[in-house]
């Protein structure tokens, strides 16, 4: 039997084999593995021999004080250890993409939610939970981490103008596929399954109550352990999505359930998500008379003109400007922090925060 069989189910491929060899992590007795659940001190792993527990090596924990890099769900790592024993995690194969936001707390820091994600499924319910500004933010999060977003409008059975809603979302999601479905009425499954090909890693996100768990149950089919645990959790009134984990769907894709994201402060990995998510605004801006136009009161502003002639929604512009400001603020704080880092030789973790971070509760936006 092919030793990498287990791992292929979890997304291992010729590409990862190559990255593994290039990483220099493949020395001595080390083997590749993927983090499928993160329990803080302990990580659940899928290895060439099946599942096991692992923990980060002392060396890696120590280095983390400088690098801030610990493995997250979805990471491919290098491990040692005999089968049947707890494995030791020594390093991470360079991440190809990520879902991250700004961590809560006073220091500007990335909170990695999932690594090596191909597609982010953003779920929004077609009844009450329909907020275009919130979708724009999820789209930004995906593009910023190098992940392709797909928008899923759930509970189509509760909506009488589905086509209209799809068109509205397409209007704020250039180049992104938008689909509507109903888990309860078993509508739209084939469309969804086109994103669930074997070998791909998809992450699931969306507001609480948008129907994510129901959708997962629907994809998994009946009599699956997850379905039961989901029901069990629901009956205790807890959010099922607070515990993130990764599992293989019957369609073949690996699914990562992200924690509820009430607060989504953007984290820019330099992938220029803003330009991707708001491409048409940036194209308009190139036509403004002044290169540094703020699109608020300047003469010859092509963006303002688009709002006046109705081709651009002012709310979309405002959201764009707001997120641009957030990212600029984050970059300034980062610049200050890295200056201080080079000025003192203290490890990152012992730095005293200077600013307190403003919290943006965007769910209500
Ligand atoms: N009418 C209708 N209701 C749905 C559909 N999908 C889910 N629901 C209902 O919406 C409610 C919330 O669904 P969940 O699947 O628990 O939502 P969730 O996104 O997982 O919520 P959290 O676990 O809190 O993040 C439940 O009462 C579901 O029965 C659908 O397709 N149609
Ligand atoms: Zn302008």
TrEMBL record:
> Which residues of the sequence carry a binding annotation for GTP?
154-157, 206-214
Q: Mind telling me which CDD domains this protein's record contains?
A: YjeQ_EngC
> What InterPro entries does its record include?
G_CP_dom (IPR030378), P-loop_NTPase (IPR027417), Ribosome_biogen_GTPase_RsgA (IPR004881), RsgA_GTPase_dom (IPR010914)
Q: Which cofactor does it need?
A: Zn(2+)
Q: Does the keyword Transmembrane helix apply?
A: no
Cofactor remark: Binds 1 zinc ion per subunit.
The region called Disordered is annotated at 332-365
Sites where the protein binds Zn(2+): 288, 293, 295, 301
Subunit text: Monomer. Associates with 30S ribosomal subunit, binds 16S rRNA.
Family, similarity comment: Belongs to the TRAFAC class YlqF/YawG GTPase family. RsgA subfamily.
Name by which UniProt lists this protein: Small ribosomal subunit biogenesis GTPase RsgA
What would be the name of the gene that encodes this protein? rsgA
